[in-house]
Specification:
Elements lengths: L1 H24 L1 H15 L3 E5 L6 H9 L3 E5 L12 H5 L6 E7 L8 H12 L7 H16 L6 E6 L5 E6 L2 E6 L11 E5 L3 H15 L2 E2 L7
Parallel strand pairs: 2-3, 3-4
Antiparallel strand pairs: 1-7, 2-5, 4-8, 5-6, 6-7
């Protein structure tokens, strides 16, 4: 009898563990667990996206609800895609939009060049000067798009490429860069205000903004 009961009990425990593991493999239950831990620790962390590139749909939703927006990007490609298109068309109009991109007009051996050299180590198609030209193209695009938007400020920075920040008055998306992967393939933290990670994101942006200069578009032929 004892062996029979132990067999049933072990089967129930095994089934419960398998159910728990299967739930944790699903995204939403894992988000709920993360949110519960965040509430307990005060970090404000609600989700961890395995890839930064998978955040765009939710970014679009949060932008539509924002009173203000702050973006510090390492290249700025997302600013030219669908997630931010409503800003440039005027469909949404936050009171303030502050954008920071690397300065493509700096001399050689800038932080932009150092990041470019890091990327070239793992991406064989990344030639010297490619990142600089991509940032310059995105800066030109945004300078043109922002001409009709009085609430948009576009500035350039020459600081270490450590992370990307997209923040509103309610949430922040924070991606920490490393020297072995593109930013789009790096994990992205999603935090809500108030909380530690939200505060870190804003502090990082505000520090860079204080050390930035007005963005300069490329001369037109």
């Amino acid at each position: 009898m004892n062996a029979f009961l132990l067999g049933i009990l072990s089967s129930l425990v095994t089934s419960a563990l398998l159910l728990a593991l299967s739930l944790l493999r699903a995204s939403r239950p894992l988000w709920w667990l993360t949110a519960a831990c965040s509430w307990f620790t005060g970090t404000g962390l609600r989700r961890v996206y395995h890839r930064q590139s998978s955040t765009e749909q939710n970014i679009s939703r949060d932008l539509a609800r924002a009173r203000w927006v702050k973006v510090m990007a390492g290249r700025g490609n997302i600013l030219t895609r669908e997630a931010f298109a409503p800003l440039w068309s005027g469909d949404i109009s936050p009171a303030s939009v502050q954008i920071l991109l690397p300065d493509p007009n700096t001399s050689n051996d800038s932080w932009l060049d150092r990041r470019s050299h890091d990327v070239a180590r793992f991406d064989p198609g990344f030639t010297p000067g490619l990142l600089r030209s991509q940032v310059r193209a995105n800066t030109d695009y945004l300078a043109q798009a922002a001409r009709t938007q009085r609430n948009v400020q576009l500035r350039s920075y020459n600081l270490p490429h450590t992370c990307r920040v997209i923040a509103t008055d309610k949430v922040a998306y924070l991606t920490f860069y490393n020297d072995t992967a593109h930013g789009r393939n790096s994990p992205c933290l999603y935090a809500r205000a108030p909380g530690l990670f939200y505060t870190i994101a804003l502090q990082h942006f505000d520090t860079a903004w204080a050390n930035s200069v007005e963005a300069r578009a490329s001369p037109q032929d």
